[in-house]
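Sanity check

After download, print the first record. It should look like this:
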Amino acid sequence: MSTVLVIDPSASVRETLRIVLGHEHQVTALATFPEAPGGRPPDVVLLGLPPPPRDEAAVGRRLLRDFPDVPLLLLHAADAVDVSAVVPPHVPFECLAKPFDAYAVRARIRSLVGVRHRRAAAEPAAFAPRWPLAPPYVTAEAASVARQVLASRLAVMLVQGEPGTGVGSVVRALRSSGRWPGAFIELDAARLGGGELTAALLAPRTAATVHVTRLDRAPWPVQAELAGILDDIHTGARDQRLVCSAERDLCALAAAGGFLPELAYAVSAVPIVLAPLRERSDDVPALVEALTRTLLPRLGLDAVDYRPAALERLSRYLWFGNIAELEAVLIRTLVLHRPRVVEPEQLVFLPEQTQPALVQRMPATAAVTHRPAAASNLVVAPHSVDLEIALGELAHELRNPMVTIKTVAQHFDGIVADPEARRRFSELMVDAVARMDGLVETLLEFSRFRTPAQRPTDVGTLLDRALDEQRQALADREVKVERHGATPGVVAIDGEQVQFALRCLCRGLLPSLAPHSTLVAHVHANGTVELRFHTEPSIAARLSAWVEPQANGVEEPPPLAVALAAALLARNNGVLTITRGDAATTAIGIEWKHVAERSAVTN
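Expected C-alpha cells:
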C-alpha cells in the first residue's frame, strides 16, 4: 500500500482526503509540515497552501529539504501558485484546485504514485547523458580536463558554463562514467536558506554525490555553510562527493567582492569550463550535424541535409542561449518545415517566427495529370482530385500538428516546470489542434457536396465573401487587396460549392503571398476570376508545379485545400489556371467551360 502525506491548513480538507483515499493508501494528514520527517519518505505529498500572504519560496525550500524527490499534488490551480518557487527542481507534480472531485483526486494520486515507482525502477538510467562528453558538444580542452578530473578522483569539482552550454549534461556524463557509485541528488543553491544545505546532506536519504547548481547565485549564509562542508569533505569527516556548477567565474566574482573567496578557490581548483557557443563558431556545423542526428528519430524524420549557406548563417549567429538555443532553432525548423534540405531562409530563429511558418509547402507525393501549357504560359489544374495526392497531402497536413503534440508530450516535464515554455508550447498546441480541427471540418464539408445544382450566380459576390473570410490573415501578413471589376459576373453554377472552392483557394494561396504586397482580385463580366500578385521566381515555379509536374525542375502537388477547390470547380465546369507573367507576377484564375465554348461559337 502506497503512503500519502496530506499537508493542508483546513481540517475539513484533511478529513475528506483521509476518507477518499484511505481505502487505497496509507494516509497521514497534518496541518503544517512535520517538524522532523524521518523514516521512509511518502510516495506522494498533497499540499494545500494557506491563503496569501504566504512565503511560497520558503515552502519550496522546505519541500526541497524534506522531500527532494517525492511527487507533489498541489491543491491549487496552476495560475494561483508560483510553481517555480514551490516545486523543487525535477519533481513530478500536478495541480488540482479546490473544490475537487473525489475521482479526480484518486486518479491524480495513482498517476503520481506510478511516476514515483517508474522513476525508482529507472534510477540507473535517469542520469544517462544526453550527449557524450566529447567534441563537438564540448571543446577538446574541456573533455580533456574532465577525463583528468575523473582519473584523479577529486571529491570536489566545478563545472562552469553559461545557461545553455550543457552544464547538466556534462554532470550526467561524468556520473555515467561509473566513477561515482551510489545515490545522487541535486540542490539549487539559489533557493537554499541558511542551515538547509547541511540538513539536506545529513538526512537519511543523503546521497554519495551531491550536485549543487547555480552556486554563483548562492546567498552568503549558504556560501559560508558550504565552505564548512568542504572542510569536512577534505578532511575525510564526510564521505561524499560534491559537484558544483556555476554560470559565472567564481574567482572573478570573489575578486569583485561578490563571492566568498575561500569557497571560490576551494571549488575552482580544476574547473571544467564550457565555452559559450559564440566563441566556438567553427564547431557549429559539426554540432548541427550531431544534434540533427539525435533529433531525427524523435521528430519522425529521415535524413536531413543543410545548404552551406544555412550552416554559414547558423555559424554567424551569436547564440545567446548557446547549445540549448541552437537545438531549439533546429527543432523549430525541422518540425515546421520538415525539409529534406534546409535552406537558409527556412531557419526559424525566434519562437515568435513560428506562427507564419506553420503553414508550409509539402513534399511531392504523386504526379498530377495536366493539360499542356499554352503559348501564353498558361497551365491548367486537373479536373478531379487524384486519390494518391489527396491521401498524401492529408497525411502531411495531419503530421505537422501531430509532431507538435508529440514534441510537447516528450518534453512535458520540462515544459511544466518552465512558465515561459508552458506559454510558448500552449500556443503551439492550441494552434496544432485548431489546424487538425479545421482540416476535419473542411473534409466533412467537402464530403457533403454531390451533383451541383446549377443556377445563375454572381461569382464576384462569392469571391468577395471568400476574401473577407481571410481578412485577418491577410492583415497579419500586411497584404493589401485591390478589387477590380464592378460588373457582376453571372455564371450557371452551384453557388454553395463554388463558394467553398473559393474559400479553399484563398486559404491555400495565402502562404505564397509576400508580406507587404498587393493582391489584385478581378472578376470579368463573363464570370472568369483572376487573382494577380507579385512573386519570387522560386514561388512562381512552385505554384506552377501544383498543376504542371516538374515545372522548372520543381515537382510538387497542390496543397489539399487547392486540390479540393480544383475538384469542386471541375464539377461546376470550371478550370483552375495559373499564368506566369512578366515583372515577376503570377495570376491564379478560374475559367468556365461553357463560357469558353460560347465564346468559340461566337468567333
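If your output differs, re-run the checksum step. Summary of this record's structure: The chain has 24 helices and 20 strands.
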